[in-house]
TrEMBL record:
Signal peptide limits: none
A GO term from the CC aspect: membrane
SUPFAM superfamilies named in the record: GAF domain-like
Protein name per Swiss-Prot or TrEMBL: Histidine kinase
Domain GAF: 23-133, 154-298
SMART domains: GAF
Classification via InterPro entries: GAF, GAF-like_dom_sf, HATPase_C_sf, Sensor_HK_TwoCompSys, Sig_transdc_His_kin_sub3_dim/P
């Protein structure tokens, strides 16, 4: 038997090498390379046993010959193999083949067993480090989601933020949010994927599904293969493999479900990933509830502010009307005295002027009331972002004053053809036209038309706004048409 002392430095070097890196794949690579160098083997490979080993299946120095691929532990003339254990778990088999200079010896086997024992410790440390890194990433992701949700995102954007961040953290093919339906089922309302989401959004899980009963009960569902699991019933299941379905629940309230499927043939989720994703879902659900509560407080603040505006408006209107009444009363007394003045050559111009000021004051008051009502009628939710929505918001505000809803019609591709600057001028003109129309006597109908296919007198393409009402103007005319146009 060969004296082990000359090979002791090589063993110590190999032992130190396998524990010099905390990254798991790098540690496994060092184990394989150290085993080959220590024993003089031409081929060395480490094959993992069972699923869930962080996506690792085999690491080798080169392609093992068929003799080295046999599942064995021990030594033959051309091959040598030992098991690597991490605590009480068999992590994998370290296999060697084709030793240079002759067959493997008992000393080779002993040295390899010592290296395998140290490798188990190094792998355990690398796993702990990887778990800590994963936990840190998930915690940072949950904090980022909470920050994003509490900065005022709309409900749909908030769900997308949760789905997208979870997909990245879980290394999943898709991040999907499902919400309960009125009939007791669940529907996919948000889907973020690394490729075309196709028809994922709108997919439903029928009431009574075993998966659904578990989710509605607040329990997570873990699936090894979505395509073959009989519990999965949706038509999109064939696109995916391993999956996690995690309830978004906070304070006893089920907001929905976060699903994180991987592609067909993808690596299964480890127990650590399942735990971290479940904790993320709980944190995200709490953030969604807090964000919804914050939005409710903001809406309440809007209503409180409107109540203040209404009180201020009431005080202003009462004061102005009282002052106007006093002015008219004074005018009345003066008009009675003016009758005697006419006989002595006096003039009633001062009376006419006073009445004119009173009328102007009343018109000013009415205009301020209209302006305040327009402002109070705006919905507390976020302002519409589309051009059509902004036009309809203006007409809905006018309906509060008129008592009826103006008729609105769009011609042409108003969203894509009308630039933002032109849209702003058009909305301002529409606002003025509606205010003027609302002052006409007997108005019972207003027609608003936005035509994005209009041609201007000089032949250029343009947009034309037309506001027609059937009221009576001050000069006795019936019906008024307001027109505004601009080139595109």
């Amino acid at each position: 038997m060969t004296d082990p002392v000359p090979r002791l430095p090589a063993l110590l070097e190999a032992v130190l090498s396998v524990g010099s890196d905390l990254e798991l794949r790098a540690t496994l690579r060092r184990i394989v390379e150290g085993a080959a160098e220590l024993t003089g083997a031409r081929y060395a490979a480490l094959g993992m046993v069972g699923p869930g080993h962080e996506g690792l299946t085999e690491i080798g120095t080169a392609e093992l010959p068929e003799s080295g691929r046999r599942s064995f532990v021990g030594r033959t003339d051309d091959s040598l193999g030992v098991r690597i254990r991490v605590h009480d778990e068999v992590f994998g088999n370290l296999s060697l083949a084709e030793k240079s200079g002759g067959p493997f010896t008992d000393l080779d086997e002993q040295l390899l067993r010592v290296l395998a024992a140290q490798a188990g410790i190094a792998i355990a440390n690398a796993r702990l480090y990887e778990t800590a890194r994963q936990r840190e990433r998930w915690i940072e992701g949950a904090a980022a989601v909470t920050t994003a949700l509490l900065t005022g995102e709309a409900a749909a954007d908030a769900l997308t933020t949760v789905a997208d961040r979870a997909r990245i953290l879980a290394d999943a093919s898709a991040g999907v949010i499902l919400q309960p339906t009125g009939d007791g089922g669940m529907e996919i309302v948000t889907a973020v994927t690394i490729d075309d989401p196709g028809d994922i959004v709108g997919t439903t899980i029928a009431p009574g599904s075993p998966v659904l009963r578990q989710l509605l009960g607040g329990e997570p569902v873990f699936v090894d293969d979505s395509a073959t699991d009989p519990r999965m019933t949706t038509h999109v299941r064939t696109r995916f493999g391993p999956s996690m379905m995690l309830p978004l629940q906070a304070g006893g309230r089920l907001i929905g479900t976060l699903a994180l499927p991987r592609g067909r043939g993808g690596r299964p989720y480890t127990s650590v990933e399942r735990l971290l994703a479940t904790q993320f879902a709980s944190q995200a659900a709490l953030a969604l509830v807090l964000a919804d509560a914050q939005h409710s407080r903001e809406r309440l603040a809007v209503y409180e502010d409107r109540d203040r505006i209404a009180r201020d408006l009431h005080d202003l209107v009462v004061q102005r009307l009282f002052a106007t009444g006093m002015m008219l009363e004074s005018t009345q007394r003066r008009s009675l005295g003016a009758r005697g003045d006419r006989e002595s050559g006096g003039s009633g111009e001062d009376v006419h002027e006073a009445i004119g000021r009173a009328v102007d004051e009343l018109q000013s008051t009415v205009q301020e009331v209209r302006t305040a009502i327009f402002a109070l009628q705006q919905p507390p939710a976020d302002a519409p972002t589309t051009f059509r929505g902004k036009v309809l918001r203006e007409t809905a505000g006018a309906a509060a004053v008129l008592g009826f809803q103006p008729s609105t019609r769009f011609t042409g591709a108003v969203e894509s053809r009308i630039p933002e600057a032109v849209a702003g001028h058009l909305l301002a003109s529409l606002r003025r036209a509606l205010a003027v129309a609302s002052r006409h006597a007997g108005v019972s109908r207003i027609d608003v038309t936005v035509d994005a296919t209009a041609s201007l007198p000089d032949g250029r393409a343009g947009v034309r706004l037309t506001v027609h009402d059937d009221g009576t103007t001050g000069d006795g005319g019936a019906g008024t048409t307001f027109m505004w146009q601009s080139p595109l």
